[in-house]
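Retry 2 of 3 after timeout on previous attempt. Resubmitting structure tokens to design endpoint.
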């Protein structure tokens, strides 16, 4: 997902869940900051690099092709953007080297999602925002894995967009190109993706790079044959999935706020969305690659407040100048990010995989 959902739609969900305007701003800022908190930024503000929640393209290209480099990639992308669905999945006849990667495939409503949400309970709002980013991405990034893998993440020529027509949908072959400077062209079905690399561990085969940004666009409906799926067609309906994501976020946020006594998988607050459903659906289905403007209007209509734009540098001076860095906005974000990454890494390690490194509990703490 992109800024339109992680920032504005997260604000919208938090407001419907009962948080104040200022609380909503802290939550949505934290959710969006997950896509910016790189090792490069952390070095700039003299913060621990282990708190990185994303990697810049230049960082990925500079990573040494060794086990430590791949483990760092997996720790970040599996923890925050491609939360594994079933770390104990079984495939008959599959060797362990394949099974370890297969088990990292992201999907919704996993045990790890429940643990992610519960980890943010009674924590600062920065932890809440991080959990909402992870939750939202399970809907957009499902069926891809947060580790470099050609055999898991590659796509082929069988990739069709389902474009709304007068009666149902028209199938149109998606034309993928590799030109990082070119914008996606939804009108003509041309999308930028990562460069095809047959190397199993190339960073070009990380996450949904081979499918470009289609998973991140709320209007997108498409079908394809995933490399791991035994040539069975998968149909992805982003407008429906994004609506589910929003409703699940509201429910999760009510739990974190204390209005729900527990967080259960496959549970959605559809009632809170109902008065707004038609307007939200219209935004989701609008064929645009950036829905920030429409979401900003919805948020203002909901709360009656102006929603300030995301400012990457907003809290950096506060952190760098503070004596008690842990008590700053970014300090609280860093603490929550390390906790989330440690939790996911521990469970991957516990499953018998070393793709994210080695992790153990000490005195009950990961």
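Retry 2 succeeded. Sequence:
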């Amino acid at each position: 997902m992109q800024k339109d959902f992680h920032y504005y739609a997260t604000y919208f969900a938090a407001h419907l869940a009962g948080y104040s305007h200022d609380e909503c701003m802290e939550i949505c800022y934290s959710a969006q900051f997950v896509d910016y908190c790189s090792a490069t930024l952390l070095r700039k503000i003299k913060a621990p690099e282990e708190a990185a929640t994303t990697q810049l393209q230049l960082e990925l290209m500079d990573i040494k092709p060794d086990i430590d480099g791949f483990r760092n990639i997996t720790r970040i992308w599996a923890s925050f953007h491609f939360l594994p669905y079933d770390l104990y999945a079984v495939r008959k006849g599959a060797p362990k080297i394949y099974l370890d990667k297969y088990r990292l495939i992201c999907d919704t409503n996993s045990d790890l999602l429940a643990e992610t949400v519960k980890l943010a309970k009674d924590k600062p709002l920065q932890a809440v925002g991080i959990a909402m980013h992870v939750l939202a991405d399970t809907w957009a990034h499902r069926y891809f894995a947060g580790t470099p893998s050609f055999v898991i993440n590659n796509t082929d020529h069988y990739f069709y967009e389902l474009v709304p027509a007068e009666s149902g949908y028209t199938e149109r072959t998606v034309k993928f190109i590799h030109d990082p400077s070119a914008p996606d062209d939804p009108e003509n079905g041309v999308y930028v993706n990562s460069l095809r690399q047959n190397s199993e561990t190339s960073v070009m085969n990380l996450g949904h790079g081979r499918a470009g940004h289609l998973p991140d666009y709320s209007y997108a409906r498409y079908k394809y044959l995933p490399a791991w799926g035994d040539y069975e067609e998968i149909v992805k309906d982003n407008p429906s999935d994004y609506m589910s994501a929003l409703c699940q976020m509201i429910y999760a946020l009510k739990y974190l706020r204390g209005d729900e006594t527990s967080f259960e998988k496959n549970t959605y607050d559809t009632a809170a969305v109902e008065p707004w459903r038609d307007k939200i659906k219209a935004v989701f289905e609008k064929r645009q690659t950036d829905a920030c403007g429409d979401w900003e209007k919805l948020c203002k209509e909901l709360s009656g407040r102006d929603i300030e734009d995301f400012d990457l540098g907003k809290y950096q001076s506060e952190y760098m100048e503070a004596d008690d860095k842990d008590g700053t906005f970014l300090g609280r974000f860093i603490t929550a990010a390390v906790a989330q990454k440690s939790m996911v890494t521990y469970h991957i390690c516990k499953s018998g995989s070393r793709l994210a490194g080695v992790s153990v509990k000490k005195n009950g703490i990961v």
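Attempt log closed. DSSP finds 15 helices and six strands in the chain.
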